[in-house]
Amino acid sequence: MSVKLDPAAVTVNECSSVTLNSSMTTGSPPFYYQWYKNEVAIPGATGAAFTTPPLLRADNGTVYKLVVSNLFSSGNDSVVTSVIPDDDPPYPVSALICPSDNKVTVLFNKPLDAASASVTSHYYIGGGATILAAALQPNGKTAVLTVPGILNGSCYILAVNGLADSCPGNLVPPGSTTVIRSIPKASGRQNLVVVEAENFDFNNSPQGATSWLFSNSFAGFSGTGYMAALPDTAVIAGNGPSLSPALYLDYCIEFPTNGTFYFWLRGATGDTNGAGNSVHIALDGANPNSTNNNRIGNDINDWGATCGPPQSWGWVHNSAVTGGPSSVDVPSAGVHTFRIWFREDGVKLDQFVLTTDPAFTLGPCAAPLAATPRAAPQLRIRRDTNGRVALTWDGPDCRLQASSVLGSSPPNWHEVDASSPFTITDPTETTFYRLVFP
Question: pLDDT by residue (tens digit) across 86-111?
Fold first, then answer.
């Protein structure tokens, strides 16, 4: 009997799995399979294919063998695994403030260990803010901190220590910090706010098989990309008041006044037959109601049909229910959560506008608008494989300060005469950094 495995050689990144298959077996059936790891039989591994558990650096050089037998003879083939160690630590990519919910949403570069991510002492926010709770979200990369009394427009620095990634357990670099970005504020005589769809403050994906996922593969977007409702298999959530699946994106926005805010959306549909061309909108987590002006795009099969090839980017505005302008009613000035509910998969969201001006208009093929800036800049601290530490920031009117003490002890902040990027070639002690507005 002859047996051959596919692939013949295995090289994987640490924490990844690999599926091994019997690509060829000669002889007379029936065949009986047994997989081995370093000559020890793997319980339950008795099929023609076997998927390894996540492989760690200790598994480098591990030999997986498949023995196949029939009533007359047996044969086997082996494969040696090479594991590339993962030495990249987790670090905070961004932190976003939503004071209406007393929440700070922190996005990390890779999945975190759930136990360490839920420890509030692993996070510290300067300026007297107290963290009451920390909750890791289902995507594994997002931690939501409960911070009562946090204020929009103030400059907060988030420091993270003691966190580990979910695999293989790398710790966040000591003193990793990021600026907590404030939320966009509607302003001007039109009380206008322009938001990139990818700059959400919370994404409750996945819900069953559906997800809002970031992408930048479809050309013509503004900002860094767009959000796509997947899997694009004609899934529909309904019209409310309850939706199934209940999938949404939340955006924290500061409104300078109460009243009706009219909604414009730039996006692209997943098809031209109406099976992926609508979303719902709501305020402060409310469920959509099919009698209100909150079902958008459903009356236009291809939003950008006149703007280029099929399914090009285009602006939509009118409610599919009334034919009038889509809108939300803001009950009071201040911070509110604006929500885009999933209705049909396949739709792509690029940018949206809210304004109190009922005469505001955009043509279907109008260019994207300049996004409303957030009040606070972004400070990024990275350590490379050579031990260098690089600090970069995007606030032109900020000063960099450093301190060797943070937390309960009095800090000794002092000015660092540097511009972005600032590189420390041979760091020898823990140092904390912050940006200060003049």
Answer: 998 998 888 888 766 788 989 888 99
Q: From CA 16, how far away is CA 309, in angstroms rounded?
A: 39
| Contact of 30 with 70, CB cutoff 8 Å | yes
- CA–CA separation, 157 vs 405, rounded Å? 14
Give the pLDDT score at 407: 61
**Side chain identity at residue 159, one-letter code:** A
CATH of range 3-84; options 2.40.50.100, 3.40.50.720, 2.60.40.10, 3.40.1190.10: 2.60.40.10
Q: What is the DSSP secondary structure assignment for residue 353, as one 8-state letter?
A: E
DSSP per-residue letters across 152-211: TTS-EEEEE-S-BBSSS-PBPPTTEEEEEEPPPB-BTTTTBEEEETT--SEE---BTTBE
Query: What is this structure's pTM?
Result: 0.60
The two beta strands, 295-296 and 279-283, are antiparallel
Whether 408 has a pLDDT exceeding 60, the answer reads no
